[in-house]
Amino acid sequence: MLKPVGNSILFVFLDEVSGGWFYDKSSVGILLPKSVESNATQCRWGKVVAVGAKVDETIKPKMNILIEAMKWTTGIDYDGVKVWRTVDDAIVAIDEDSIPA
User: Which domain holds residue 74?
Assistant: First the structure.
């Protein structure tokens, strides 16, 4: 199990990501690339995998978070899943409906 340190947050994107680019998926499963501007300037939603010890206690695993544009690292493969890292200061919003009970 991955355990982030400090104020690090490990997450997976809710958007489709391939080769560092974000895509929309059509109803038949075809990946449609988003614009270069969209890739570089839009905040993105992610699902928290794990949080470091210094992360605000309102951010918990399995919740959805909105991350400031480009405030994440390159993804790494861990146990067959692409995982990304950000810090708590880069969180713009949380989805209260996704907060684990």
Answer: 8-98
Sign of dihedral through CA atoms 15, 18, 23, 28? negative
Per the listing, tokens 């890739």 go with: 39
What is the pLDDT, as a whole number, of residue 44? Answer: 86
- 51: in domain: yes
- Please state the rounded mean pLDDT for residues 40-58: 89
* Total domain count, the chain: 1
Smallest CA-to-CA distance from 86 within 78, 77, 75 is with 75
